[in-house]
Write a structure and sequence with these properties.
Length: 176
Amino acid sequence: MHEDDETPDHVARIQAAWSRERPDLDVAPQGVIGRLHRIGALLTEELAAVYRRYGLSEGEFDVLAALRRAGPPYERAPGELAAYTMVTTGAMTKRVDRLERGGLVTRRRSAADGRGRVVALTEAGRGLFDRAFTAHIANEHRLLSALTAEEAAALEPLLAAWLGRLETPRREPRGD
Protein backbone atom coordinates (compact mmCIF):
# COMPACT_ATOMS: atom_id res chain seq x y z
CA MET A 1 0.00 0.00 0.00
CA HIS A 2 1.07 3.55 -0.62
CA GLU A 3 1.56 5.91 2.28
CA ASP A 4 -1.40 8.15 1.40
CA ASP A 5 -3.92 5.29 0.89
CA GLU A 6 -5.60 6.12 4.22
CA THR A 7 -6.60 9.65 3.16
CA PRO A 8 -10.26 9.76 2.08
CA ASP A 9 -10.47 10.65 -1.58
CA HIS A 10 -13.19 12.57 -3.38
CA VAL A 11 -15.26 9.44 -3.97
CA ALA A 12 -15.05 8.38 -0.31
CA ARG A 13 -16.29 11.83 0.74
CA ILE A 14 -19.22 11.56 -1.69
CA GLN A 15 -20.06 8.08 -0.42
CA ALA A 16 -20.00 9.31 3.18
CA ALA A 17 -22.36 12.17 2.31
CA TRP A 18 -24.76 9.81 0.51
CA SER A 19 -24.65 7.35 3.39
CA ARG A 20 -25.69 10.20 5.68
CA GLU A 21 -28.34 11.59 3.31
CA ARG A 22 -29.69 8.31 1.91
CA PRO A 23 -28.91 5.56 4.44
CA ASP A 24 -31.56 3.45 2.71
CA LEU A 25 -29.31 2.99 -0.35
CA ASP A 26 -26.18 0.88 -0.63
CA VAL A 27 -23.75 3.29 -2.32
CA ALA A 28 -20.86 0.78 -2.30
CA PRO A 29 -20.76 0.57 -6.15
CA GLN A 30 -19.65 4.21 -6.21
CA GLY A 31 -16.42 3.08 -4.59
CA VAL A 32 -15.45 1.21 -7.75
CA ILE A 33 -17.39 2.98 -10.48
CA GLY A 34 -16.81 6.49 -9.18
CA ARG A 35 -13.08 5.90 -8.90
CA LEU A 36 -12.88 4.27 -12.35
CA HIS A 37 -14.75 7.23 -13.81
CA ARG A 38 -12.36 9.72 -12.21
CA ILE A 39 -9.31 7.64 -13.18
CA GLY A 40 -10.64 7.42 -16.75
CA ALA A 41 -11.04 11.18 -16.97
CA LEU A 42 -7.56 11.79 -15.56
CA LEU A 43 -5.98 9.20 -17.85
CA THR A 44 -7.76 10.63 -20.90
CA GLU A 45 -6.34 14.07 -20.18
CA GLU A 46 -2.83 12.70 -19.61
CA LEU A 47 -2.99 10.69 -22.85
CA ALA A 48 -4.46 13.57 -24.86
CA ALA A 49 -1.58 15.83 -23.77
CA VAL A 50 0.83 13.56 -25.65
CA TYR A 51 -1.40 13.46 -28.74
CA ARG A 52 -1.55 17.28 -28.77
CA ARG A 53 2.27 17.47 -28.79
CA TYR A 54 2.06 15.78 -32.19
CA GLY A 55 -0.82 17.95 -33.42
CA LEU A 56 -3.38 15.16 -33.05
CA SER A 57 -6.68 14.75 -31.27
CA GLU A 58 -7.51 11.50 -29.52
CA GLY A 59 -9.76 10.51 -32.42
CA GLU A 60 -7.13 11.26 -35.04
CA PHE A 61 -4.56 9.26 -33.09
CA ASP A 62 -7.04 6.35 -33.07
CA VAL A 63 -7.49 6.53 -36.86
CA LEU A 64 -3.74 6.56 -37.45
CA ALA A 65 -3.32 3.68 -34.98
CA ALA A 66 -5.95 1.60 -36.78
CA LEU A 67 -4.17 2.19 -40.09
CA ARG A 68 -0.72 1.44 -38.64
CA ARG A 69 -1.95 -1.78 -36.98
CA ALA A 70 -3.30 -2.94 -40.36
CA GLY A 71 0.26 -3.56 -41.53
CA PRO A 72 1.50 -2.85 -45.05
CA PRO A 73 0.11 -1.17 -47.07
CA TYR A 74 -1.46 0.53 -43.99
CA GLU A 75 -4.94 1.05 -45.36
CA ARG A 76 -8.55 0.30 -44.50
CA ALA A 77 -12.00 1.11 -45.83
CA PRO A 78 -13.67 4.03 -43.99
CA GLY A 79 -16.33 1.68 -42.60
CA GLU A 80 -13.63 -0.58 -41.16
CA LEU A 81 -11.96 2.44 -39.57
CA ALA A 82 -15.26 3.49 -38.03
CA ALA A 83 -15.75 -0.01 -36.61
CA TYR A 84 -12.18 -0.23 -35.29
CA THR A 85 -12.45 3.15 -33.59
CA MET A 86 -16.09 2.78 -32.53
CA VAL A 87 -17.35 6.04 -34.05
CA THR A 88 -20.01 6.86 -36.60
CA THR A 89 -19.09 7.08 -40.27
CA GLY A 90 -19.88 10.82 -40.10
CA ALA A 91 -17.36 11.34 -37.31
CA MET A 92 -14.86 9.22 -39.22
CA THR A 93 -15.25 11.40 -42.32
CA LYS A 94 -14.39 14.52 -40.29
CA ARG A 95 -11.31 12.85 -38.79
CA VAL A 96 -10.10 11.58 -42.16
CA ASP A 97 -10.72 15.00 -43.76
CA ARG A 98 -8.46 16.66 -41.20
CA LEU A 99 -5.78 13.98 -41.46
CA GLU A 100 -5.89 14.21 -45.25
CA ARG A 101 -5.49 18.02 -45.13
CA GLY A 102 -2.43 17.44 -42.93
CA GLY A 103 -0.92 15.04 -45.44
CA LEU A 104 -1.09 12.13 -42.99
CA VAL A 105 -3.55 9.98 -44.98
CA THR A 106 -4.85 9.73 -48.53
CA ARG A 107 -8.17 8.56 -49.93
CA ARG A 108 -8.61 6.69 -53.15
CA ARG A 109 -11.02 4.35 -54.89
CA SER A 110 -10.70 0.72 -53.90
CA ALA A 111 -8.98 -1.48 -56.50
CA ALA A 112 -11.17 -4.39 -55.39
CA ASP A 113 -14.42 -2.44 -55.52
CA GLY A 114 -14.43 0.67 -57.73
CA ARG A 115 -17.34 2.12 -55.77
CA GLY A 116 -15.61 1.78 -52.41
CA ARG A 117 -12.99 4.06 -50.91
CA VAL A 118 -9.75 3.27 -49.10
CA VAL A 119 -7.95 5.42 -46.54
CA ALA A 120 -4.19 4.91 -46.53
CA LEU A 121 -1.45 6.11 -44.21
CA THR A 122 1.13 8.28 -45.99
CA GLU A 123 4.85 8.05 -45.25
CA ALA A 124 4.56 11.34 -43.34
CA GLY A 125 1.59 9.94 -41.42
CA ARG A 126 3.44 6.77 -40.56
CA GLY A 127 6.49 8.68 -39.38
CA LEU A 128 4.44 11.05 -37.24
CA PHE A 129 2.37 8.23 -35.81
CA ASP A 130 5.40 6.10 -34.97
CA ARG A 131 6.94 9.02 -33.04
CA ALA A 132 3.63 9.77 -31.30
CA PHE A 133 3.06 6.10 -30.46
CA THR A 134 6.52 5.78 -28.92
CA ALA A 135 5.76 8.80 -26.71
CA HIS A 136 2.29 7.41 -25.96
CA ILE A 137 3.66 4.07 -24.73
CA ALA A 138 6.27 5.84 -22.59
CA ASN A 139 3.45 7.93 -21.13
CA GLU A 140 1.37 4.83 -20.39
CA HIS A 141 4.37 3.31 -18.58
CA ARG A 142 4.70 6.54 -16.57
CA LEU A 143 1.01 6.52 -15.66
CA LEU A 144 1.03 2.86 -14.68
CA SER A 145 4.11 3.41 -12.49
CA ALA A 146 1.73 4.87 -9.87
CA LEU A 147 0.97 1.20 -9.13
CA THR A 148 3.42 -1.44 -8.03
CA ALA A 149 4.11 -4.22 -10.52
CA GLU A 150 2.07 -6.54 -8.33
CA GLU A 151 -0.89 -4.14 -8.20
CA ALA A 152 -0.86 -3.71 -11.98
CA ALA A 153 -0.61 -7.47 -12.49
CA ALA A 154 -3.60 -8.02 -10.18
CA LEU A 155 -5.67 -5.23 -11.71
CA GLU A 156 -5.37 -6.18 -15.38
CA PRO A 157 -7.19 -9.55 -15.23
CA LEU A 158 -9.95 -8.05 -13.07
CA LEU A 159 -10.52 -5.24 -15.54
CA ALA A 160 -10.33 -7.66 -18.49
CA ALA A 161 -12.94 -9.95 -16.92
CA TRP A 162 -15.28 -7.06 -16.10
CA LEU A 163 -14.90 -5.47 -19.52
CA GLY A 164 -15.50 -8.79 -21.23
CA ARG A 165 -18.72 -9.27 -19.30
CA LEU A 166 -19.93 -5.73 -19.99
CA GLU A 167 -19.12 -5.98 -23.70
CA THR A 168 -20.87 -9.34 -24.12
CA PRO A 169 -24.37 -8.69 -25.41
CA ARG A 170 -26.93 -9.42 -22.76
CA ARG A 171 -29.19 -12.31 -23.48
CA GLU A 172 -32.90 -11.71 -23.32
CA PRO A 173 -34.61 -13.77 -20.63
CA ARG A 174 -36.34 -16.74 -22.14
CA GLY A 175 -40.07 -16.93 -21.64
CA ASP A 176 -40.35 -20.68 -21.03
